[in-house]
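Quick start: read one record
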Amino acid sequence: MAKDSSAKSSKKEKAKTKKPNRVVKYFRDLKSELKKVVWPTRKTVVNNTGIVLVVMLVVGLFLAGVDTGVGFIIDKLIGLAG
């Protein structure tokens, strides 16, 4: 019986020490992975942001034109029925 209780207590001690080690290992791995990242330059970020804004503007204008055109057609169809 004495061996069982000492084995249980040693398992509990291992479980207690295992959780903080997992957290520490996670942050060490995170730091290691972040060092491997190739971060874009400021010029690249500004260029890509400009491209995104221009594409958004073009798509927005296109959708506004389609909406206006479809609205106009629907108004004419409703005018014919009434």
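The two ends are 95 Å apart (CA to CA).
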